[in-house]
Amino acid sequence: MNLSQPNIVALFAGCGGLDLGFRQAGFNIIWANEYDKEIWSTYEKNHPQTFLDRRDIRKIPSAEIPNCTGIIGGPPCQSWSEGGCQRGIEDERGRLFLEYIRILQDKQPQFFLAENVSGILHKKHEAALKNILAAFEEAGYIVSLKLLNGKDYQVPQDRKRVILVGYHVSLNKKFTFPEPNPNHLTLKDTIWDLKESALPAQEKNKTNGSQCIVPNHEYMTGGFSTIYLSRNRVRCWDEPSFTIQAGGRHASIHPQANKMIHVEKDHFIFDPNSPYPYRRLSIRECARIQTFPDSFIFDYQNLASAYKMIGNAVPVNLAYALARVIFDDLRGVASFTEKEKTGYSRGFCPQNLGRIKG
């Protein structure tokens, strides 16, 4: 294993926010998997050194994935979301966690990191989560789990996510989560300089392309649903953002406008006396709030695709904070056997598939 730049693979990579944070921390992402064709171009443009496997993860034999020091990735979270049906492991997307465990058990890297929404901690998923943790442990890992808020790690938004990190038992170590940073970033810290240059989308919310002075600095237009208007959607300049959502229709309102007015239960309206108009955050503003650098260019035709890939990403700064701890822990390991350097296979136990049903 090259401790100067350990090789890792990324599952369910999306556009690669988690990957970028790990790369900034000193890791080399040699192979990634993403099945959503609307993301492929963006990933490949921004991670040219990484081989992107576009197949359905369920059809990729573990033997075709490179041996590596670590595996990172967030299995799809919709089935665990508090805003969704919460079917969890019973949902086809929820069961993709099993593919993550299959590959982990077969490849036996030194560590793994998995990310998911806070809804996975809901009481109705207690049994499923307990069995997932047991499967990670049976695969040979000492697992740490914690609910983190991105705003505590230099991410300018309230974003609660469950992080699981496992160290292989051969390391004789347990991951310790980094301490929260009390200095929270605000919207003014993050997007103030963009306030005058955003463009509304073209007809049918198509991109303006090269007409954007700042790349991707355009926002979705159109009406707002009754669900959207059921609560205030505006944060002030001196606050962190609301959670960046994986959909343009639900993007928060830019802080130039006044906070919305509560008129009755589950019903807010826009303030008619607001000094500036109400508009959604732009794609670039959402990317900044997710701590993507401006050099990270999103490739799309429909703005909805861009909002989705950004909202589903792990914030880069949060990924970096976690990756630095892992990198330092690995660097502190004195020696490795040849097996541990290259990874080795332990057959996936079919009985685990039956256990993780919650």
From TrEMBL:
<dbReference type="GO" id="GO:0032259">
    <property type="term" value="P:methylation"/>
</dbReference>
<dbReference type="InterPro" id="IPR001525">
    <property type="entry name" value="C5_MeTfrase"/>
</dbReference>
<dbReference type="InterPro" id="IPR050390">
    <property type="entry name" value="C5-Methyltransferase"/>
</dbReference>
<dbReference type="InterPro" id="IPR031303">
    <property type="entry name" value="C5_meth_CS"/>
</dbReference>
<keyword id="KW-0680">Restriction system</keyword>
<protein>
    <recommendedName>
        <fullName>DNA (cytosine-5-)-methyltransferase</fullName>
        <ecNumber>2.1.1.37</ecNumber>
    </recommendedName>
</protein>
<dbReference type="InterPro" id="IPR029063">
    <property type="entry name" value="SAM-dependent_MTases_sf"/>
</dbReference>
<keyword id="KW-0808">Transferase</keyword>
<keyword id="KW-0489">Methyltransferase</keyword>
<feature type="active site">
    <location>
        <position position="77"/>
    </location>
</feature>
<keyword id="KW-0949">S-adenosyl-L-methionine</keyword>
<comment type="similarity">
    <text>Belongs to the class I-like SAM-binding methyltransferase superfamily. C5-methyltransferase family.</text>
</comment>
<dbReference type="Pfam" id="PF00145">
    <property type="entry name" value="DNA_methylase"/>
</dbReference>
<dbReference type="GO" id="GO:0008168">
    <property type="term" value="F:methyltransferase activity"/>
</dbReference>
